[in-house]
Structure to design on (305 residues):
């Protein structure tokens, strides 16, 4: 019974991390109609910034992480996303694949394949014992941050001028321009907000693992693939359904990791059956609910975001 509760708590924590990443990916898709495969490399860049400043004050290290991720987000927007604004979704998707592997190659050449150790706030990795269940502080922080980020983004999109303009640009950028919306500025703002969420994930993700984490060029790539699958499974056309899809995938990975034969430490186990079980579940969901697990039937353009 104790092991079951512990597995449940760990699965909720992993689901919260994946939900946080899904919010950032879903926001960019909602505004740009772009599935950003390079999102994981933003997290990787932030994690490298943390690893290279391990000896610096924590606040300075985290500030540098945010600065690197936001600078990279703006660079991608002006160098890749904006020039391809009128291209087909397939072209933009292929471009994000290319950007992802370009950033990985740059990290490989600059930092090598061995990886850098990252330590953010060690005290958050300490456990709180409730009965016989061990809940680390970072688990509680992750859940609260994920809920807070989603709530703040919902308020931004529904209660602010810039949020309403983001929604207008996501529906029809050309018509929004005719009505006075500065579509490019609004889209850049959405990319920056997504970058902020990526930076938060870059800070939280290394602390989710009980041991010290090695940041390598392919860091966060596997998590990004699973989150992208979760966004599709949940329903990519709405931010809420995409976020719930990301949480569901993380929760499923956490639960399967707890019960299937595995080697390694949670949550990044190399379970013998983990990937097969997770993607069999995905196939089953897509067969039964091709429009998305949390989608409410067919959507019109007005209902995006």
């Amino acid at each position: 019974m104790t092991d079951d509760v512990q597995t449940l708590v760990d699965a909720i924590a992993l689901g919260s991390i994946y939900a946080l990443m899904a919010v950032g990916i879903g926001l960019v898709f909602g505004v740009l109609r772009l599935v950003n495969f390079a999102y994981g490399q933003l997290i990787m860049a932030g994690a490298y910034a943390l690893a290279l400043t391990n000896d610096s004050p924590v606040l300075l290290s985290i500030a540098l992480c945010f600065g690197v991720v936001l600078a990279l987000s703006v660079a991608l927007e002006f160098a890749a996303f904006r020039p391809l604004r009128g291209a087909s979704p397939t072209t933009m998707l292929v471009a994000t694949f290319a950007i992802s592997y370009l950033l990985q190659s740059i990290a490989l050449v600059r930092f090598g394949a061995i990886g850098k150790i990252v330590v953010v706030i060690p005290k958050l990795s300490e456990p709180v014992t409730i009965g016989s269940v061990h809940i680390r502080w970072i688990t509680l922080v992750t859940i609260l941050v994920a809920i807070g980020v989603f709530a703040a983004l919902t308020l931004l999109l529904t209660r602010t001028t810039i949020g309403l303009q983001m929604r207008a640009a996501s529906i029809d950028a050309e018509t929004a321009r005719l009505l006075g919306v500065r579509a490019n500025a609004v889209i850049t703002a959405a990319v920056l907000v997504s970058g902020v969420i990526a930076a938060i994930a870059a800070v939280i993700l290394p602390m989710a693992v009980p041991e010290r984490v090695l940041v390598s060029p392919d860091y966060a790539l596997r998590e990004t693939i699973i989150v992208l699958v979760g966004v599709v499974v949940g329903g990519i056309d709405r931010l809420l359904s995409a976020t719930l899809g990301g949480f569901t995938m993380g929760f499923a990975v956490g639960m399967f990791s707890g019960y299937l034969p595995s080697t390694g430490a949670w949550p990044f186990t190399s379970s013998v059956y983990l990937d097969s079980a997770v993607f069999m579940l995905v196939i089953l969901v897509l067969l039964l609910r091709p429009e998305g697990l949390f989608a409410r039937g067919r959507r019109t353009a007005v209902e995006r975001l």
Summary: The beta strands are 116-118, 127-130, 133-136, 213-215. The first strand starts at residue 116 and ends at 118.
